Amino acid sequence: PFLLSAFDPLRHYTGTYRAYRVENGGGNTWFPISPDLTDGLIFGNTFHTISAIDESPKDSNILYAGTSDGNVWVSTDFGSNWNNISQTLPDRYVTSVIASPTDSSAAFVAHSGYKYNEFFPHIHKSSDYGASWTDISGNLPPLAINDICAYPTDDDILFVATDGGVY
To answer: What is the reported pTM?
Structure first.
């Protein structure tokens, strides 16, 4: 994943097995801002990566990252420290993690279970920096969620991209 900061157009984020930041608009020096956020090199380099990354549009200190092996992390101090917040979430590939556009303590995460032959939509919301999660999948069809987008002024309005269309 690649992310341009909403606070500074010269600040970019990306991820491999850890998160990186560059401050000069894509220069040659990317600095790691996290330890390994995956479960480690179990099957090789290509199996455990950061699959989603986001910065809170309300507070540049708050960053979220999700991984291909089911981990979700938050940093509330500009990437200096990371807390694993995936304990009560499905242990599935994280397809999207977004910070709320209206509440600095809220976030959304989506998972895909296709790798496990599971066809359930997984969308969860946290209102406390990931300390607890609520399943908000509702009546979505039994398809993986590929991405989530929140309405800029009301995060009760979500757009959800699935393999069967946008809801």
So the answer is: 0.94
Q: Is 18 in contact with 30 (CB distance < 8 Å)?
A: no
Q: Is residue 153 scored above 70 in pLDDT? A: yes
Tokens found for residue 23: 């401050």
Question: Per-residue confidence at 115, pLDDT binned at 50, 70, 90?
Answer: confident
| Average pLDDT for 138-143 | 94
User: How far, in Å, CA of 76 to CA of 8, rounded?
Assistant: 17
User: Residue by residue, what is the 3-state secondary structure of the chain?
Assistant: CEEECCCCCCCEEEECCCEEEECCCCCCCCEECCCCCCCCCCCCCCCCCEEEEEECCCCCCCEEEEECCCCEEEECCCCCCCEECCCCCCCCEEEEEEECCCCCCCEEEEEECHHHCCCCCEEEEECCCCCCCEECCCCCCCCCEEEEEEECCEEEEEEEEECCEEC
CB 11 within 8 A of CB 2: no
Question: What does the pLDDT read at residue 122?
Answer: 94
